[in-house]
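Collaborator request log, item 7. Partner lab (contact: R.S.) asked for a structural prediction of TonB-dependent receptor to inform their binding assays.
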Amino acid sequence: MQSMPRKPSGAHPFKPRALFRLCCGSALASLTATAWAQAEPAQAASATEAAATELPSIIVVGTTPLLGIGTPLEKVPANVQTIRGREIEQQHAPTITGYLANNAVSVDTNDAQGNSSQTDINYRGFTASPLLGTPQGLSVFLDGVRVNEPFGDVVNWDLIPQAAISTIQLIPGSNPTFGLNTLGGAVVVATKNGRSNPGGNAEVSAGSWGRKTAQVEQGGTIGSNLDYYFTANVTNDNGWADHNSSRLRQAFGKLRYTDADTTISLSMGGADNTLNGSQTIPSSFLDNRKQAYTYPDTNQNQVGYLTLSGDHYFTPNIELSGNVYYRHYRNKNTSSNVNDEFGTVEDDGDIDTVQATNDQSVIVTDSYGASLQLTLLGKLLGRDNQLVIGAAGDFANSHFTQASQEAFFTDSRATVGIGAFEPQTDAKTRNENYGIYFENTLSFNEQWSMTLAGRYNWAKAVIGDESGVQPLLDGNHTFSRFNPAIGFNWNPTPAFTAYATYNEGMRSPTAIELACADPAAPCSLPNDFIADPDLKPVISKTFEVGARGRVGNSTTWSAAAYSTTLTDDIQFVSSQGAASTLGYFQNVGKTRRQGFELAGRTQYGPLGVAASYSYVNATYRSTWTESSASNSSADADGNITVHSGDRIPGIPANTVKVRLDYAATPKWNIGTNLTYRSSIFARGDEDNQDDNGKIPGYFLIDLDTTYNVTKQLQVFATIRNLLNKKYSTFGILGENFFNGPNHTFNGAAPVDEQFLGLGAPRGAWVGVRYAWK
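Returned to partner:
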């Protein structure tokens, strides 16, 4: 969020320069934010502009991926939320996803992977997940660069440098200017700079489950035109459950040049993380919630990236911005699985007695691209007008290899390999994405404005077999579409805004979906690629109406109602039950997420209160058949029929969030988050008929406190899940192969069960931060 001066009567309302230098956003819609963010110090380009800053300020929102002038909030037809990095720091949230789950409206998470750094974010029923094969519905940007990995569109939240975050902006709907994958919304992350964040600090913390963290941060200026920023952190966490430890290493740096008309920024970062997961566990395992179903399951994520960006004002009304980036990403996944062929008759007539397989996959991606954006401020038909025109090209080369090793299970369900790893897949993919977009905001008068926007996307995915033994893997696919948007804003008073909007978006099928789409040749995720028939792109169409405003100087509120319909939605259809990794992707017709959200924030002296309620009705709108043999309603062939109106699993209908901040003294602050999430259906129960029923909802209380011993020294403490609730955030139906004595392997008689992704028990941490100028 930014403030900018309101020009005197008759002048253009969008006066640019230093006040627009940050990524912008609106806190009016982020009612769970801890406070109204204040404008960062502006640099006056001249004495004339300095005089103008004495007038009342307005809020500016960034509505395109690139940093630019932005749009005044009163003219933005969307319920945008903005979260400041300092708000994340105030709550001492260990992960970005954890903070969003506690504070952001219409956001919840699930722990399908069994590691707190690998959770899925669900926003209005759309997902941004690190799990390969999950249908993604949110686009995520870091300083204008899309970080949905090209191979699978996954989002690795652990690779985003949390300490470097200046703002996180949640933009709802199918905003076409953000390009591919913006079906339900965009998450835009902007990083800090040294001019706005001078000085430094060092922080350490420790507590439950052996979690230890250390972090350093430093920013400043060099002369009058250069500034720098750097941060690095390490985390070692043994994990609250067996075999779900984490080791994270992150670093980020930025060097900027600024003058009255130009900003040039060079940023770079990297991460090297090892994340172990405990998977979902059968309900019969709940006698010991810490145990893993099988292990090991490890993700090793590494990334290095470099971004050169800049903007230049040719005149106060003409601004050109752009970026160029390179990103190198490597993921190595090792997973332990029950052998899908156990107990079957082999070609030689023998029974397959191999209990398990160790699967190992490696993805290496080099991605690069560039964007250019021109903003023109002026008059159209005698009315104030802002026109943004942009173009972007994103390219990626990925190499995917997968190997499998036969194994057996120990009594503790660890896999022990037998022999060497045998290659299964060796493939290369090439992604090319081009986009041309525009956004025009026309002010009819002081009360009414209209926004027109659109983007033409052209995407190409080429898949090639490198092994020489899987020619069906070869394929060449192209997708293209123009996506429009229109919105209207009404501002009868400075304290009230109402809006209505319609927009469309597109997601092209990923390489992993295209290479695993043949029902006659199912593949194992995230592993074997088999065949390559066509899939249709997913098209989203969103309607939204809403309002927001102020009451007095300390109270803000927002309300919105929306409906997003997807055509040709893509879903992974299991061929051996929902918990099996064997299956294929297919278009399943229409799905819809619709609902409403209410939020408000106020300040009563030393007490700040923020509250939100969101309702999401996520349903299938077409009838289709899938294999879900572990569903009690399945027919003799193991199939279920999903009907129009059945609820989509994993998406809660109701969420309620309350944040309380109490300044007990000028030095001591106490905060609490109260979170309620309603029940969900398990994956595999798409027909909502399984006898296991829903995964129950839950209510959680988190506490945090900060005490400033001196201006430089701060101590803090946090408690998560204060009441030590036993709860689950995710569910899936499947076969439990470990129903022998003490949960040992019994492959001859598996039992259908509901598998659960468990939430963490109570945990507490303390820390110290020392700051310097």
